[in-house]
Task: structure prediction
Amino acid sequence: MAKKPMTETEVRGLTPRKDTYAVSTGYGIRVHVKPNGSKYLTWEYQFPPVKTGERRYYYFGSYGKESEGLWSLKKAREEKFRLDVLRKQGQDPDLLKSTDKKEIEKTATYTFRRVADEWLGSRKSMLSPFTIEDYKNKLDNQILPVFGNISIRKITRHECVNFKKSHSARAPEQARKLLMVMKQVFEYAIDMDWMEDNNPARESKNTQTE
Result:
């Protein structure tokens, strides 16, 4: 039987030894524990993504509370799943680490479609196949035809509210769910520091009662 992925509590409970040691936390991510008790997270991956590809290592950063600017296990897993989507498309995660944020800040090339693809990829191990398929259908059939090619930074609150209104008259519950999916895509972009912390698809009394 495969070993269950570690929890945050289990990682926090790892105690230091005389020498640095590493423990698999699941999903290819390892936690390294130093003699002083500090920890850091890495991901071992294969690139190119074929049998003959090289084994490489991606360094996330020091383990700890996200509120303190450190990497939680949850955050590292989400980032790993995002990067794995790009790895399978032929992009080396380690090279992306040094260039991705600069590219975004300089050119704002992250479209809603690209963020949605990476967000959905990051959720595959956490949600049921049915839920993933449901989200994908909502994106492909309703959301992406409208917002897919727009920079994630340029979509406004007004546009999101009007999009929900356009679906509310004939299918209010479907409209609510569409806005919910959009909200999660924007939250992902905010967490990745790709846009300001101001979710244009956030819920409010207006969006709940339309």
Q: What stands out?
A: The two ends are 50 Å apart (CA to CA). Residues 8-99 form a domain with the Double Stranded RNA Binding Domain fold (CATH 3.30.160.390). The chain has eight helices and four strands.
